[in-house]
Design brief:
Elements: H1 15-29, H2 31-34, E1 49-54, H3 60-71, E2 75-79, H4 82-85, H5 94-102, E3 107-112, H6 117-124, E4 129-134, H7 140-154, E5 160-165, H8 172-181, E6 187-192, H9 201-209, E7 214-215, H10 220-223, E8 229-232, H11 243-247, H12 257-262, E9 268-270, H13 291-310
This protein binds phosphoric acid mono(formamide)ester.
């Protein structure tokens, strides 16, 4: 199936498309073993160029996209700190920047602090745009790698009880993952967050409309023993309106050893990373903690997406 812009995860509603992405991702994961050169980008008439345009900090998303492009034999150009080192400093609009960068590249991966920015970029760009996070909006490629990780670790993406713990209001990875999971069969959502950081109402309205089970305001200790997946996020400190609002919730949740004792032996703990105090490093060796494997899966998912978009 042909992919062009990736702006929101709802674009992956079609089962066949998701299956195609995951199947290609599995092949990308084994590329070093198989040496299957048909997985690489074809270079006629020249090498393909990926532009990474980041207006917010990133470790995983930018570097995994850049590594993915290089592993496929392509080239990259990059602005990692666009608010300081792009012509935005001189007053250039996002739309103008996109038009110009598009003339230098075959695809643009964009991270921006404003919700809706990827959509705006896609409306003026002659080359595909991939949303690498638009403010508190969405992070669709993260949701794809999250779901791929669940599939690999549990062998299924249906019939799951999923606990989502943390900053559900501002976390774009949570928003995208819930939209994506809501399209799978027999998913139960358990939302666990500090009161001011509850899941946005557009999501709960949708879940109600579709008759999908969810429970808000859960106590982690009450539900931990039934979960198949515990997905944790940090407080999105950069999105809080003021210091007081942040100080009121900081340290209010943590996945500690007591929680680990209450989880099932096969529950998987995911986190998009980076983490802060909510996920102490002393649980990293627990076999249920799969967040570093999850980050690695981002590389393979992004290789598959680049291949599908560019060819
Ligand atoms: N998960 C994620 O988006 O990480 P980065 O902010 O490091 O890209």
């Amino acid at each position: 199936m042909k992919l062009n812009h990736i702006v929101e995860v709802q674009q992956f509603r079609k089962k066949e498309l998701l299956e195609e992405v995951f199947s290609l991702t599995e092949r990308m994961e084994r590329l070093d073993e198989t040496g299957d050169s048909s997985l690489l980008l074809s270079h006629t008439p020249r090498k393909k160029i990926l532009a990474t345009l980041f207006y917010e900090p990133s470790t995983r998303t930018r570097l995994s996209f850049e590594s993915a492009m290089k592993r496929l034999g392509g080239e990259i150009i990059s602005t990692e700190d666009a608010p300081h080192f792009s012509s935005m400093v001189k007053g250039e609009t996002l739309e103008d920047t996109i038009r110009v960068v598009a003339s230098f590249s075959d695809l643009i991966v964009l991270r921006h602090y404003e919700e809706g920015s990827a959509k705006r970029a896609s409306l003026v760009s002659p080359v595909p745009i991939i949303n690498a996070g638009d403010g508190p909006g969405q992070h669709p490629t993260q949701a794809l790698l999250d779901l791929y990780t669940i599939k690999k670790e549990l062998g299924r993406i249906n019939n799951l009880k999923v606990g989502l713990l943390g900053d559900l209001l501002y976390s774009r990875t949570i928003h995208s993952l819930v939209w994506l999971l809501a399209n799978q069969e027999n998913i139960e959502f358990y939302f666990i967050s500090p009161e001011p950081l509850r899941i946005p109402s557009d999501i709960t309205v949708y879940l109600r409309e579709k008759d999908i089970f969810f429970k808000e305001n859960c106590n982690l200790y009450d539900i931990s023993s039934i979960l198949d997946v515990l997905y944790v996020t940090r407080l999105q400190k950069e999105r809080f309106r003021n210091k007081e609002a942040y100080n009121a919730v900081v340290g209010s949740y943590v996945v500690d050893k007591e929680i680990l004792l209450s989880l099932k032996p096969d529950t998987k703990i995911l986190h998009p990373l980076p983490r802060t105090s909510e996920l102490p490093s002393d649980i990293d060796l627990d076999p249920r903690a799969v967040y570093f494997k999850q980050a690695e899966n981002g590389l393979y998912i992004r290789m598959a997406l680049l291949k599908m978009i560019l060819e």
